[in-house]
Specification:
Length: 457
């Protein structure tokens, strides 16, 4: 099947590469010509495990193509995925639909008569966007005088985790689609058949198929429900993390260990263990944006979603718990050297969007601390984002630790587990560590002599 993907950001590139691997001919479009030229050479502009390797393998086979010409992208395509950015609008929390609107109009100007097209919203979009896109396409067709174009608009939300996108796209929990057109639904089912039936094998170096996985649910809803499922899913997961962080704070007060509490809770099948890891809060490009988007949807209709508002508020408060724990030991942080182990909002990504590290650094600088940072992937990105911040950028964890009065473990990079912690202890001026992810070996660190403080431990 011929497929076009409009937008080569995180969602678009993962989507395009996966369909190409499954045997479809995919052409990805982006207005950024420099990005397109890089992709043609197999270079991607962000880090995601296995993705660049997948793209480089597909390029010589001519199953994955890249272009900055929308006409070229749509020339033969039966299915057109819209995967452009939908950022949060400043001040309002609503979703900025500028790029979706632009693409819908451009698609309408490019469609050819006497053909059937299925346009699929892959971007995370507000409820009713399928109607908006359909109307804008129809408007453009009328303006250009193009007649006898048969098209439908569907919703097909993505459920990708940064750092685990290859596993999520090839071994998904479910495939959600929303479309009123039977022909469009049939196209989507054909497109996804290899995933539904799991009729493929990834290279041996890629993540293995889960042992009990044999078939993926392909679930069909009306487009409005399909659009809301993505928001509802992410809002629930974000709230679940916020909840266990609240329990962690209570554990600190009463003397319990949140890791034990979470284990005991997670064994209840009604609750489950996933997303019950306490820490300094979630970040990234999805949870905050989707929570705000869902809140905005409700408020526009006169409803106050108090639980979601509280979840958002408490998450950002949670970030500063690490600083409060340092203050308990050091009292004032003025003039103290504080090191941040990790910067990205999670491991296996170079993404700093809404990363807790940014809020921690900003607060520490306001407290007149000297802030040292180290991350395996995100150092250059932080310098680009915050060139005005007077930070000390170190090239490894040992240089970071030297002379520090305290360390905060911000990102759960695996390499931090294998550090020579005795050496780290000897390099520090005050051996205090706040484990913001409850990731490190508390017993081992305390045996060395560290003052260890976890979250809810």
């Amino acid at each position: 099947m011929d497929v076009a993907v409009i937008g080569t950001g995180y969602v678009g590139l993962v989507t395009g590469a996966s369909f190409a691997f499954l045997g479809h001919k995919v052409i990805c479009h982006d207005v950024d010509k420099a990005k397109i030229e890089a992709l043609k050479k197999g270079k991607i502009t962000f880090y995601e495990p296995y993705l660049e390797e997948l793209v480089q393998d597909l390029l010589p086979k001519q199953r994955l193509l890249f272009t900055s010409s929308l006409e070229e992208a749509l020339a033969k395509s039966e299915v057109i995925f819209i995967a452009v950015g939908t950022p949060t609008a400043p001040n309002t929390g609503a979703v900025d639909m500028t790029y979706v609107r632009q693409v819908a109009r451009q698609i309408g100007k490019t469609l050819q008569p006497h053909r059937y097209y299925l346009i699929v919203n892959k971007s995370t979009v507000p409820v009713g966007t399928h109607q908006l896109v359909e109307g804008l396409i129809q408007q453009s067709l009328s303006e250009t005088g193009t007649e006898k174009v048969n098209f439908a608009v569907a919703s097909n939300p993505e459920f990708l985790r940064e750092g685990n996108a290859i596993e999520d796209v090839f071994y998904p929990d479910r495939i959600v689609v929303g479309c009123h057109c039977s022909q469009g639904l049939a196209l989507l089912k054909t497109l996804y058949e290899p995933l539904i039936e799991q009729k493929f094998n990834l290279p041996s170096s890629f993540p293995a198929r889960p042992s009990k996985m044999s078939k993926v649910p392909f679930v069909q809803f009306d487009p409005i429900s399909s659009e809301l499922i993505k928001y509802a899913s992410n809002a629930f997961l974000a709230t679940k993390i916020t909840y266990i962080n609240e329990i962690a704070n209570i554990c600190d007060l009463v003397g319990a260990d949140v890791k034990d509490v979470a284990l005991g809770m997670g064994l209840d099948q009604r609750i489950g263990s996933a997303f019950l890891k306490a820490g300094i809060g979630w970040g990234g490009s999805c949870f905050g944006k989707d929570l705000r988007g869902l809140i905005s949807e409700a408020q526009q209709r006169g409803y106050s979603p108090d639980l979601l508002l509280a979840s958002l508020k408490k998450n950002y408060e949670q970030r500063y718990r690490a600083i409060y724990k340092l203050q308990e030991e050091l009292k004032t942080l003025r003039g103290k050297k504080i090191g941040l182990l990790g910067l990205t909002f999670k491991a296996k990504t170079d993404d700093l969007r809404d990363a807790p590290a940014l809020d921690l650094i900003e607060r520490l600088l306001l407290l007149d601390s000297t802030v040292k940072v180290f991350d395996p992937l995100a150092m250059e990105e932080l310098q680009r984002l915050r060139p005005q911040w007077p930070l000390v950028y170190e090239q490894n964890a040992y240089d970071l630790a030297e002379g520090c009065h305290g360390l905060i473990l911000v990102t759960e990079w695996e390499q931090f587990l294998s550090l020579d912690w005795q050496k780290v202890y000897e390099l520090m001026k005050k051996p205090i560590i706040v484990d913001g992810r409850n990731f490190l070996d508390r017993q081992r660190l305390e045996e060395i002599g560290f003052v260890y403080s976890g979250m809810g431990r």
